Fold this sequence. Notes:
- By secondary structure, the protein is mainly α.
- The chain has helices at residues 3-12, 14-39, 43-64, 69-93, 98-121, 144-163, 165-173, 175-180, 185-201, 204-224, 230-254, 260-278, 284-311, 323-328, 336-345, 361-373; strands spanning 321-322, 349-351, 356-359.
Amino acid sequence: MPFLELGRDLFYDYTLRTVAMGSAVLGVVSGALGAYAVLRKQSLLGDAISHAALPGIALAFLLTQSKAPLVLVFGAAIAGWIGTLLVISIVNQTRIKEDTALGLVLSVFFGTGLVLLTFIQKMPTAKQSGLDTFLFGQAAALMEHDVITMVTLGGISLFVMQLFWKEFKLLCFDSNFGASLGFPMRILDVLLITLLVAAIVIGLQTVGVVLMSAMIVAPAAAARQWTDRLGAMVALSATFGAIAGVCGAVISSSMARMPTGPTIVLCISAIVVASITIAPNRGLVWNWIRNQRERRKLQIEVVLNNLYALASQHADLRHSHSIAALGTMSANRSNVRNSLKELSSRGWVERVSSDEWALTPEGIVQAQQIADRGR
């Protein structure tokens, strides 16, 4: 399908527009709040919350016999919040470590949710149809009222995040200092987790329980490669999440039987890979280039220092020496000639004959400075 036609459908096709808007809202909210989870090294917490939300969805349906978005989201939020508090209690009250507690809560709650879903599917009614889509998501089933619910809950979450911006920053980077200033760090911790629960539950219908943790971790992981500032990281994370959501919705709509949720996750995964590769702060490509520059600089300094050491054995520091003599002093003899050419271009050495090189006055000064730094 041509790009122009896709762009037109994005604005005029009701289904695609609704799915794209819902996916973008999910990306913005989960990306912004996921930045805090990544910075606090609680990436697995999103996985535990999303899996813990499943029994809440099932219980909400059993108690109300309703599939209204607000009802199911409320049940998912309660279950996810209880699961998170249970993890915190296990870590604080026992000797079990956090990763083990997360694994226990995740597996127990998810298993309970699957049992409840199986029970619901066997009920002699037709009301339960569609609940199983919360496992892997079904973004194509999003309706306008679903998006309104997501925007409302997501907007409230982002407003609270902005309201407690400084407090959450303290919580992420120095909670002990915040406690010494009198801030209720434990309450702030619970509040931030509550916002994270809200970010997760609004995306369960779009990407599902299994894949929702990727929307919490991946945008923030990508944003972290580009910046060292919290504000910029939160903004970039939200932007990456929105881009992945819209791109996933558009790609899945243009291909037959392409599920939207997994496609969104693949899109954000591609952004993560690109960020890890080319980001100027931590990207692998730029790190490789910097390492090559530093290695080249070190090789040049070694050759210059060796030439100075040989010249120091003579009364005239501009006494020339052969490449072979310099090669015996270097661990990598093949780079001596290239290093001499680079030094010559800088005006620090000069060729005396086809095989002889000598220091220039500028080169002597540079070599002395390098020798002084090494002392």
